Each structure stands twice: as structure tokens, then as C-alpha cells.
Amino acid sequence: MYAKIIIDITHEKLDRTFEYEVPKDMEDGLAIGSSVLVPFGNQDRLRQGFVVGFAKECSFDPEKIKAIHSKAPKSVSIEENLVSLAAWMKEHYGGTMIQALKTVWPVKKEERPKEKRMIHRTVSVEEGRKWLSFFQRKNQKARARLLEVLLKSEDVDYGWITRKLGVTAQVVRALEEKKILTVERETVFRNPVRASGAGRARITYTEEQQEAIRIFQEDYERARFDTYLLYGVTGSGKTEVYMEMIRTVVSVGRQAIVLIPEIALTYQTVMRFVQVFGNRVSIMNSRLSAGERYDQMMRARSGEIDVMIGPRSALFTPFEHLGLIVMDEEHEATYKSEQVPRYHARETAIERARIEGASVVLGSATPSLEAFAGCKKGTYRLLRLTKRAKEQQMAQVSVVDMRDELKNGNRSIISDALRGKIYDRLEKKEQIMLFLNRRGFAGFLSCRSCGYVVKCPHCDVSLSWHKGGRMVCHYCGYEEKVISVCPSCGSPHIGAFKAGTQQVEELIKKEFPQAGVLRMDLDTTREKESYEKILSAFADQEADILVGTQMIVKGHDFPNVTLVGVLAADLSLYMSDFRAAERTFALLCQAAGRAGRGSVPGEAVIQSYHPEHYSIQTAARQDYEAFFEQEMKFRSLMGYPPSAHLMAILMISEDEALLEKGAYYLKIFAKAVGSDPKLELIGPASPAVAKIRDLYRKALYLKHEDYQVLIAVKNKIEQYIEINEGFSRIRIQFDFDPVQA
Ligand code: ADP
Ligand code: ZN
Ligand code: ZN
After folding, report:
1. Atom of ligand 1 nearest to the CA of 209
2. 683: part of which helix (H) or strand (E)?
3. Ligand 1: which of 213, 240, 275 to mutate, most ligand atoms within 8 Å of CB?
4. What is the three-class DSSP state of 370?
5. Record-annotated residues binding Zn(2+) 2 (predicted)?
6. How far is 668 from 661, CA to CA, in rounded Å?
7. Which residue among 239, 309, 387, 553 has the greatest number of ligand 1 atoms within 8 angstroms of its CB, and so is best to mutate?
8. Ligand 1 proximal residues by C-beta, below 6 Å
9. Closest-lying ligand to the alpha carbon of 495?
10. Rounded to an integer, what is the distance from CA 644 to the centroid of its chain?
11. pLDDT score at 575
């Protein structure tokens, strides 16, 4: 028998399978996904590889074919279904097979299991008593103490009992030699969820919740595994619906994965699941240690848990009978990976579910255009929750035209209307959230005389001005001192104009000295758990106002917040990508959704320099469908996803001239192979960030309605650059339907 093996070397030229003979004694132990050591290259160095297929015959001279050396020690095999998923990801998103395998391979290597030592009594109680009086006679107090405990319970924890009784290892050994006890090592899985499944009262579902659950259950009973979009306003009870759906799946012996954006993976979220599913819930996230992560995979594989909660990568949890993948906040940009293969968790979840025979539930208050368009086309089933579960009203939203403020002589970042409302809430002892989608003290530094902007010499992005006189690059961390004279024209009128969260915080403290203010942005949440500390301080009403970036608008429940101010609604509109309006709409809706989740109705104020823009207008009315119609017109006019597909070819090199030449040839080649007249080619252009860590970047964009056409072009380009030496110093990456975070 022969095995097809992918070697663990990331190199385009080695991106194919190699054939090896399977030694007779390994035939039984080997499966697709097994990790093995094989001799490779001139010197037959042992390399790790993965089995991706088997064959009775080999395509080369059987005399010359080498044999697999052994199974790889300390490495973890990959589930066969996940190997299939990896192959799909490679085809759909580009990159090599080994890169795809490593993406679905959740742990790098076997981790040392955590061990617990147990002391086990091996003699009968009667015989133990004889020994006890023997030790007492000989005045061997420690031995007697230990034996007394063992006579009460047959098994005790070694570490715990020796510490408690002050008994040394020698004493234990002495009793072991007399065959009174044995010491046994038990491996235990690390468990990152420290909680008890306290259980909770069952709730009565609203009619809309019941209907969504009924449709899902009816399909599930008929083994009709589908993709659903649960579209429901914030607070409409989507999480409760997910949990009931998971209950359905678990009751027939299957498991569920719950994807949530990493930032939303809070203690409260996990506890809601623990209350329902007890200790059969686990989590995955980047804060877990390698050992903890490894153990969660093993627990999933061995059937010890039913529900795995985690960000994007939890999608690859090796459950044996996966029945459901829930993807909460499916519109979030973090579901797109920025590493090769640049997969989107939504499509990849749907493919995994297809392979496993499972269902997918996407959930959002502001669905991605992809998901809602999918419902309109009939590929996904729409489940709707239109009302809040606890009969709260949606927030009242008003839009303030900041251009008028300027005309009226108000140069502050806070409009008169918002200021008045803040005073009002402070008086009523209600809480306020102020949202700004920027960070840093005061944005970028520019010259009022000539327009010069201070940029990072390595990354070609503007440096941010931080308090303390530093200017910092957000990509590479480069720092320099704030300058007071323009290096381009010598003018002293150089300064920062755009406000950052720090500046807003200071302004608020000055204007409202009686208010307690908390700030949450990347700077204040760098430390472990600082994020949760700020949130719980605000939830405990230790402050009146929370100022922050995107982070504060995502899914937190603060019942006492009755006013939300969006200080600069337009900032995200100026970002140079086609999803800018969609992102702005979603942010504004989420911000508004933060107001009034308790008994008092809430209010949101959106400040804008473009109040007539449809994404601001529709967000103010919380009218998703109107936004969808408008935005789809723009997407189809321009041929942007989801009405067509967009493939970015990113080219990266340290040699700028070579890169330009390469981009030119690649464009000619792409034109030639994509002879389809409907294929549109754009670029080459410098992407938003043209240079990162001294590497130059260029991008070509291809548009076509049919994803398969783009895949075919991608495959041809991959072959072309493999044989063309000129591209050996240019890295090529593909990005399908890009998402800018
Ligand atoms: P979403 O996920 O859509 O934001 P949640 O599931 O978090 O909504 O529900 C919002 C709040 O309403 C939660 O506190 C939840 O426990 C509560 N809730 C949801 N459904 C019901 C219901 N049928 N009866 C009572 N409370 C509910
Ligand atoms: Zn200048
Ligand atoms: Zn930089």
C-alpha cells in the first residue's frame, strides 16, 4: 500500500503530494490525517508530513519509492473531515495545502498531560486497623495519621492530603512498600471554564422565538441540514434561541460549535451557556495556554464536552458528531482571517457543515450583505425576531448636523444638543456612553500651511500623536518625538486636529467635572483582563460616562445606560474600501442598541458632517432593509460583493522596482488566461497600506460574477509563478472578497 503525503514545508514548489510506501506493520495504525516522519530530499532528512490519501498502486517506479519512517512522535493527527475541509480552503482561498492543514490543525504538538496523583488503599479495613495499632504502638505518628484518613476513604488526592496532614513522601513510600497503599497517576484535562452548572429557570419563549425554534427543529428531525440567518434586533433573544437549538442537537448525541467575536467572549457570555449545559461547555481563545488549548481539543475529540465556544478558529474543533455551528454577530470583520489561507469563517462553516451533515445558524442584528442577499436568493432560510424579548423599546435616535454647530460658533466635538442631554442624564444619575471610532490622543499630525502629514518611514501610514509627546506607528510600533516645525515648509503651524478618545476623555472631564469618566480603547486595554475590569466597573456604576472606541458598542448590556453619543459618525465612511458604508451602518445600529436596555427608554445622538448619507439616515431609523436596498444598488453597479466576487492578488517584495515589474507581468498574464470578457481587471494599485515593515505591497483586483472563474485564474497564476524564476522574490497572496478590519 502507498500513502500520499503532504510534507511540512511551506514552499510553493513543494505544494503537492509525495508518494511513500506504507510499511506492513503500520498499515493498521495509519489513517487520512495521520502525522508521519518520512525521508525527504537529497540527504533523506526526516521530515514531518500528513497523510492525505492512500493508493494500491504508485505512479512511480516501485523500486525507487521510499517508505514511511514512523508515526511522528508527539504530534496530533487531523480528523479526516478536517483534511477535506483544508483541501476546500486551499482551493477557495489560495495558499499551499500545508498552510491549509495547519489552519485546521488546532494544536501544534502534543502537550504534556496534567497529572494528578492519587493514593489508593489496597488493604481491607480490618487489616488496615491492625496496621494502625502497630504504627501507634511504635509511635509512628505520621504513618498513623495517613492511615486513619485512608481507612475513612479509599482514595485521596496525594498533594492535598500530604499537605493537609504534614506527611512526607517517605512516609507514603513506607506504606507503599508494606503494600498498604499504591500511588496512582491519573491524567486530568485542564479546564479553563471555572464554573458550576447551577442550572436556571426555564424561560417562556416569545412567539417569534418559538417560531424560529420550531422551524429549526422540524428541519432537524427530518435530517434537513440547512443554513439559517437569525436576524433579530439587539436584545431580541437570539442567544436564547441558539441555546434551544443546541439543546435539540445535543439531545440526539451531537455537538455544537458557537462562534463569537473574540471580544465578546466574556465571562457573562460563557456563564449563560454553562447554566444550561453545565460542565459540558468549553471555550477556546488566544488567552489559553498551549496546554489548555490542547486539552480542550482532546476533550472535544473524546466526547467529554458538547459545546465549544470560541472565536474564528474554534470552527475547527474536532467533534466526532458535529451537528450545529452557530455564528453570532456574523457580520463582524474579525471572522475573516488575515493569514493565508485568508478564509471567511462564514463560508468555511457552511462547507464544514456540508461535509459533516450539520446545520449552520448565522445570527445578527445587522446582517452582512452576503447573508441577507443569501436569504433573498433562497440559499439561506431567514428566521426573524423583530421585537425585544423583555418588552423594551428601541432607542430614539436623532442626527445632529455638525456643520450647523460650526456655523453657530460651537467648535467643540460635542454638539449643543448632546451636551444638554449629557447634563440631563448626569442629573438623573443615569449612565452615558460616548463612542468615537479612533484611538490615540489626537489622531495624526499635519501642517496647516502646506498639508504635510507626518508618516512612519517604514509603513507609509500617518503616525498617531499620543500623550507625552510621542508619535507612534500603529503597524510597526515605530516612535518619534512630536515635532513643532514642519519639516517640509518650516511653518510652525503643525498640529493635530482630529480628536482621539484620550482627548474626548479630557474634554468631558473638564466640561463635566462632577462626572466619573472611564475610557476604553486599545491603550487602556493592553493588559490582561483590563477590558473586563473597565466593563465591570462601568456596570457597577462606578462611573457615569464611558468613552471609547468600537469596543464599547459590541454587545454589552448596561441597563442604566440611557444615552449613547456617536461623536464622529463619518470617520468610518472615509475608509477606502467598498464595505465602508456597511460598517458604518452596523456600528451606528449597535451604538444605538446600547441605549435603554433597562426599564428606562434610551436615546442615541449621532453627530455627523454628512447627515444626508443613506447609511446614517437608515441607521437613525434602524431600517436595515432600506439600507440593504440602497447598498446593494451600489454593489451591483460597481460589481462588488455580494453581487459579484472580487479577488485581490497581493504582491509583496522588498524590491520596489522588481515588484512593479512583477505586477505588470502578472496583469498581462491574468488578462491572457482570464479571456472571459466579463472578467474585470483593476490595478495594480498600492493598497491602503503600501509598505509594512520595509516590504512593499501592490495589489491587483479581479472581478467576476462567478467565483469559479476567479478560482481558475488563481490556479493558473499559482502554476505560472511556480515555474517563473522572476517571481521567486515576490510573495503572492490571494484574498477573495476582502474584508478590511
Ligand atoms: P440577543 O442575543 O438577541 O441580544 P439575548 O438572548 O441576550 O438577546 O436576550 C436579551 C435579554 O433578554 C437577556 O437577558 C435574555 O436572558 C432575555 N430574554 C431572552 N428571551 C427571553 C424570554 N423569552 N423571556 C424572558 N427573557 C428573555
Ligand atoms: Zn508645512
Ligand atoms: Zn511603521
Report:
1. 23
2. strand 680-685
3. 240
4. helix
5. 456, 459, 473, 476
6. 11
7. 239
8. 203-206, 209, 232, 234-240, 389-390
9. 2
10. 26
11. 47
Atom number, ligand 1, closest to the C-alpha of residue 241 = 6
Q: Which domains does the chain have, with CATH numbers?
A: 2-104 (3.40.1440.60), 115-187 (no CATH), 207-385 (3.40.50.300), 396-441+497-635 (3.40.50.300), 645-736 (3.30.70.600)
CA gap 107, 245 in Å, rounded: 29
What is the rounded CA–CA span in Å between residue 735 and residue 648?
A: 5
The best mutation among 242, 266, 331, 390 to test binding of ligand 1, ranked by most ligand atoms within 8 Å of the C-beta, falls on: 390
Q: How far is the CA of 227 from the centre of ligand 1 (A)?
A: 22
Q: Which of 688, 697, 682, 691 lies closest to 647 in space, CA to CA?
A: 682
Q: Ligand 3 centre from 455 Cα, in Å? A: 8
Which positions make up the binding site? Answer: 447, 450, 456, 459, 473, 476, 486, 489
Q: Which residues are annotated as a binding site for Zn(2+)?
A: 447, 450, 456, 459, 473, 476, 486, 489
What would the pLDDT profile of 562-588 be if each residue is shown by its tens digit? 999 998 776 655 444 688 789 889 989
Cell of 29: 495504525
Q: Are 195 and 281 in contact (CB under 8 A)?
A: no
Helix axes 141-152, 125-137, angle to 10 degrees: 160
Q: Would you say 688 and 576 are in contact if contact means Cβ atoms under 8 Å apart?
A: yes
Ligand nearest 239 Cα, by number? 1
Residues 351-370 have pLDDT tens digits of 999 999 999 999 999 999 99
Q: What is the ipTM of this complex?
A: 0.94
User: Residue 564: phi, psi to the nearest 5?
Assistant: -125, 130
Count, in order, helices (H) and strands (E) of the chain.
Answer: 21, 31
How is the beta sheet containing 479-481 ordered, strand by strand? 464-466, 470-472, 479-481
Q: What's the grid cell of residue 371?
A: 447573508
Question: CB of 486 within 8 A of CB of 450?
Answer: yes
Helix, strand, or coil here: 708? Answer: helix
- pLDDT of 459 reads 60
Residue 394, phi then psi, degrees to nearest 5 = -70, 155
Residues 727, 72: Cα–Cα separation, whole Å: 34
Closest residue to atom 10 of ligand 1, CA basis: 235
In this predicted structure, the answer to whether residue 441 has a pLDDT above a threshold of 70 is no
Of 14, 189, 165, the residue nearest 116 (C-alpha): 189
Q: What's the rounded mean pLDDT across residues 438-449?
A: 58
- Element (DSSP H or E) covering residue 701: strand 695-704
Cα 437 off chain centre by: 20
Lowest mean pLDDT among 209-213, 275-279, 349-353, 392-396: 392-396
- Residue/partner pairs of 484-492 with CB below 8 Å, 24 or more apart: 486/447, 486/449, 486/450, 486/452, 487/452, 488/447, 488/450, 488/452, 489/447, 489/449, 489/450, 489/452, 491/447, 491/448, 491/449, 491/450
Closest-CA residue, ligand 1 atom 6, reads 237
Total count of residues recorded for the chain: 741
Contact by Cβ (8 Å): 257, 325: yes
Residues 553 and 660: their CA atoms lie apart, in Å, by 42
Grid coordinates 512593479 are at which residue? 660
